[in-house]
Design a protein that fits this description.
Blueprint lengths: L4 E8 L1 H9 L14 E2 L5 H10 L10 E10 H4 L4 E3 L7 E3 L1 E2 L3 H6 L1 E12 L3
Antiparallel strand pairs: 1-3, 2-6, 3-7, 4-5
Length: 122
């Protein structure tokens, strides 16, 4: 039987991308103490909005935003509900508890890819 995978996206800044690269593009870094959840998003459009409109204005992101894409085992992901945030149906994400991120990372299939980059516009 072929295992099915779900494609997800994650907008990140430079520091987070550096940590992903350090993992060999196989894992997202642990959350900081003030970050109780990891938020992968369901579509590229939403990830672009965050990377372009938020990360590029954030010093902690290095004023740069990246969109990463990855596959995760669908059977694993079924334990989480899709959350729609904001007014637009495009704003859909998963809320993965920070303490479950290691397990989440173990269910990533293949490598995490960088598919978009946005730089601060002065």
């Amino acid at each position: 039987m072929t295992e099915h995978n779900t494609i997800l996206f994650r907008p990140v800044g430079q520091i987070e991308l550096d940590l992903i690269e350090k993992s060999g593009f196989t894992a997202y870094p642990p959350r900081l103490e003030m970050q109780p959840f990891f938020y992968p998003v369901l579509n590229r459009e939403y990830a672009i909005q965050i990377a372009r409109d938020w990360n590029t204005k954030d010093a902690a992101s290095g004023y740069v935003g990246f969109v990463t894409r990855f596959f995760i085992r669908t059977d694993y992901l079924k334990q989480y509900e899709v959350q729609t945030v904001g007014a637009a149906a495009v704003h859909q994400e998963y809320w993965i508890p920070a303490e479950k991120l290691d397990e989440f990372n173990k269910n990533i299939v293949g490598k995490i890819e960088v598919i978009d980059r946005f730089d601060r516009i002065s």
